[in-house]
Amino acid sequence: MSQSATPKPFYNNLTFRVVIAVLIGIVLGAWFPETGAAMKPLGDVFIKMVKMIVPPIIFCTIVTGIAHVGDMRRVGKIGIKALIYFEIVTTLALIIGLLVVNILQPGAGFNVSTIHADISQYTATAHAQSTVEFLLNIVPKTFVSAFVEGELLQVLFVSLLFAFGLMSLGERGRVVLELLERITEVLFHIIGVIMKVAPIGAFGAIAFTIGKFGLAALIPLAKLMLSFYLTCFLFVSVVLWGIARWYGFSLWKVFRYIREEFVLVLGTASSESVLPRMMQKLQHLGCSRSIVGLVLPTGYSFNLDGTCIYLVMGAMFIAQAYNIPLTLGQQLSILGLLLITSKGAATVTGAGFVTLTATIAATGMLPVEGMALLLGVNRFMSEAMSTTNLIGNTIATIVIAKSEGELDETMMMEALNSRP
After folding, report:
1. Could you tell me which of 103, 159, 114 has the C-alpha nearest to residue 292?
2. Alpha carbon 257 to chain centroid, angstroms
3. Quick one: CATH architecture of 17-417?
4. pLDDT in tens, 267-279
């Protein structure tokens, strides 16, 4: 008779270790700011390690998943359905953000003269961002450069082409397919090794944030911070809860299932830091490999719910702070522009900030220098932004998988109902 596995001690649990590391980082950054700011390399190294492994994992997962489907029209159907879902949900995120920022008016009465910051580096990057540039950037310069530069959409583009080419070979391509499946197993084992140092990365990232900007930096913009966190909470607890309930699963249980990834994203302020693990965990949840490989990486560029909320609230905050009255038509025009610009928000460093800078410059209604108001708290808002993006893409993958009949619901219920 097989014996049940001995539960791991609580101190060996990744969630526990990351939470403790984040708390230590906050204390260090608050009490010893210079030392805390010096911890930045720890967070940077961890993020770089994860980003290093993301392109090959996405490539192998997408290629093997689509190759097993064996039907290009079915892949196209899944892709179109995912994009429609992304557009609907991100539009709801923008609308909720617009409603809350108009009701709470976080920028009203703000003294703009109290903030002085240099945003030239972001402005320069923002000028390079346009719809045409975004579309052209999807196609890499070479096959290999997609992996070298680590651009998710470029890796996705190359992966789709390779998968379609492999499908067209039929049985002759089976050797390549089996090789890629073995490589995928190795890559996920590497992720397991990298995640052992996740607490160190989370500690370094949060210690740097608190040490560099200080908790005092939150005070002048506390109303904006609270408004933003409240909006993200409303979006998750109303919109995503409603979607989960409609499709017959519990949002709370899904949240509990990805608790380790949630805490890690909270500490590093980067949803990309858990992308490889999420691809693995969603397959263990019962979603097919092809759905996970196609929907999740695409969602990281097209389904950024938290980023959308940040964009619309940031723009309206600047308008309120500078006492620039915007008509409903003008607000809707900004929202319409954000529906387009938000889709490229994951392609550059400081994505949300750069995208908002580009959008404000494009509207001509608001002063670009108003972005300096957000610079001090941008890093703190990234936590809520990234965790909302994570939850949104997790729900999106489950929904698309279930709608396509590619979700093993028995497997999902077992995973969601298992004890933490």
Report:
1. 159
2. 17
3. Orthogonal Bundle (1.10)
4. 887 787 888 889 9
